[in-house]
From TrEMBL:
Name of the protein: 5-carboxymethyl-2-hydroxymuconate semialdehyde dehydrogenase
Key words of the record: Oxidoreductase
InterPro entries in UniProt: Ald_DH/histidinol_DH (IPR016161), Ald_DH_C (IPR016163), Ald_DH_CS_CYS (IPR016160), Ald_DH_CS_GLU (IPR029510), Ald_DH_N (IPR016162), Aldehyde_DH_dom (IPR015590)
Transmembrane segments: none
Enzyme active site: 257
Annotated family: Belongs to the aldehyde dehydrogenase family.
Organism: Streptomyces thermoalcalitolerans
Pfam families found in the cross-reference section: Aldedh
Claim: Oxidoreductase is one of the keywords in the record: yes
């Protein structure tokens, strides 16, 4: 059932309006949110306008002094209460997210939504530990403080909507800032549920605002606003360029988490079954993962055996309804994304690539898991982010060549190395250009670690203290040992 204020998705009521200053606000127009699973209409979502975006920034500005002055312990308590709310509504969040973006329900239940709660708990706890030893300069005391910066605009993509939103919302709120969250138009629903949960947890009105709508229509009103003190964006490189240009007017500090074309390097000395498992894992979320190691770089001497075992493993993957526990790969998010993926693959095939598996669409929004060989390093399929279940395989003869191929794109988000030789692991990782390197593992993420990308994969790092460094105005106060009346 849908109307222009609420909708019901898998039995869960979701408000489809904005959340501004502690109130639901409708737009004159709506856009239709459709499920990638079966094309069902999920809701009519408020189609935000620049005026509504400005209203959300105004609400964040008005709420800022109160939240910034709220003692750390109280801010941490509210964040833990939000985490409690996420845990209480975990099943609802999981099913709504699956219906909205098509990612696996079992992943949402067991991995993603628990991590959403953890985002709030982690940054609440980190806030209470945040501090700095004072230090002395010829009797003068230096004291470093992390002051709240002000209203933050947080813009997020559709591939892991609530996980990526809360990875920004939680540290921004912990730091004492207020927030305007703009979720992606292809997966707008769980951001609205988060607004409900935060309000129930006692977050004051205006501290978290959610504006729905098309980035192209309201993005600029948010990112060029002079009252916005931070912009954190996760999404594509072209959008990041537009945001950076828009933010330049006020020199608003930016954190950019962008795309990738990450390599998986498989050396002949690797545990080959482990390497194959790591490679097959790259089809998770139908390949719509920024960190995905979509370029398999395999040492020549084991390439045939690796490929044989890979095909064997990949052919056992179950593709289907993401609500089904047995499913490994669900649909891609949107017909436009399917077109984009297939366009990359068909152009690669026309240019001489060979599809070892896949290389074609299936019914609905499903794309066959694909492995392409005979691809040149400078070809589009090796250089451009596909964001679908499409891997390429290239071979190398030497460690030198492996590193050269691995570093040979304009991205630098992540890299994975499979090797049985510790010395090689150390040598190779030291030379890889990547924000995160995994050795004989993949996707092990710790919120204490710096996360971000090099080159066009991003700007800045978030995680642990790095998040607070970004979301705060760091201040050093130098106090002289003289001049106070109580010191005579
Ligand atoms: P996108 O850039 O199209 O959109 C991301 C967000 O930006 C959406 O909310 C969209 O509405 C908004 N937007 C669009 N135009 C805007 C504008 N002019 N001003 C302000 N906001 C605007 O990206 P997408 O297709 O939603 O997501 C896929 C991309 O995200 C991929 O490139 C992927 O690699 C990247 N990603 C990166 C990470 C990471 O952590 N590095 C994580 C997930 C996804």
């Amino acid at each position: 059932m849908t109307d222009t204020r609420t909708t019901t998705v898998a039995g869960v009521a979701v408000d489809t309006r904005h959340w501004i200053g502690g109130e639901r606000v409708a737009s004159a127009e709506t856009f239709t949110d459709v499920s990638p699973i079966d094309g069902a209409v999920l809701g009519e979502i408020a189609r935000g306008t620049p005026a509504e975006a400005a209203a959300a920034v105004a609400a964040a500005k008005a709420a800022f002094p109160g939240w910034a002055a709220t003692p750390r312990a109280e801010r941490a308590r509210v964040l833990h209460a939000i985490a409690d709310g996420v845990e209480k509504r975990l099943e609802e969040l999981a099913i709504v997210e699956t219906c909205d973006n098509g990612a696996l329900l079992r992943s949402h239940r067991r991995g993603v939504m628990p991590r959403v709660a953890h985002n709030f708990r982690f940054f609440a706890d980190w806030l209470l530990k945040l501090g700095h030893e004072d230090f002395d300069t010829r009797g003068h005391t230096n004291h470093v403080s992390w002051d709240p910066a002000g209203p933050c605009v947080l813009i997020t993509p559709w591939n892991a909507p609530l996980m990526l939103a809360t990875w920004k919302v939680a540290p921004a709120l912990a730091a004492g800032n207020t927030v305007v969250l703009k979720p992606a138009e292809w997966s707008p629903l769980t951001a609205s549920l988060l607004a409900d949960i935060a309000a129930e947890a006692g977050l004051p009105a205006g501290v978290l605002n959610v504006v729905q709508g098309y980035g192209a229509e309201i993005g600029d009103a948010l990112t060029s606003h002079p009252d916005v003190r931070r912009i954190s964006f996760t999404g594509s490189v072209p959008t990041a360029r537009r945001i950076a240009a828009s933010a330049a007017a006020n020199l608003t500090p930016l954190s950019l988490e962008l795309g990738g074309k990450s390599p998986l390097l498989v050396f002949a000395d690797a545990d080959l079954d482990l390497a194959v498992d790591l490679a097959v894992e790259q089809y998770d979320n139908a390949g719509q993962v920024c960190l995905a190691a979509t370029r398999l770089l395999v040492e020549e001497s084991v390439a045939d055996e690796f490929t044989r075992r890979f095909v064997d493993r990949a052919s056992r993957l179950v593709q289907g309804d993401p609500r089904d526990e047995a499913t490994d790969i669900g649909p891609v998010i949107h017909p436009r994304q399917l077109e984009r993926i297939d366009g990359f693959v068909q152009r690669a095939l026309a240019a001489g690539a060979r599809a070892v598996i896949g290389g074609r669409r299936k019914e609905g929004l499903y794309y066959a898991p694909t492995l392409l060989t005979d691809v040149a390093q400078d070809s589009e399929i090796v250089q451009e982010e596909v964001f679908g279940p499409v891997l390429t395989l290239q071979t190398f003869a030497t460690e030198e060549e492996a590193v050269r191929l691995a570093n040979g794109t304009r991205y630098g988000l992540a890299a994975t190395v499979a090797t049985g030789d510790r010395d090689r692991a150390a040598r190779v990782t030291a030379r890889l250009v990547a924000g995160t390197v995994w050795v004989n593992c993949f996707f092990v993420r710790d919120l204490r670690a710096p996360f971000g990308g090099s080159r066009e994969s991003g700007m800045g790092r978030e995680g642990g203290t790095w998040s607070f460094d970004f979301y705060c105005d760091l201040k050093n106060t130098v106090t002289a040992p003289k001049g106070f009346k109580d010191h005579g």
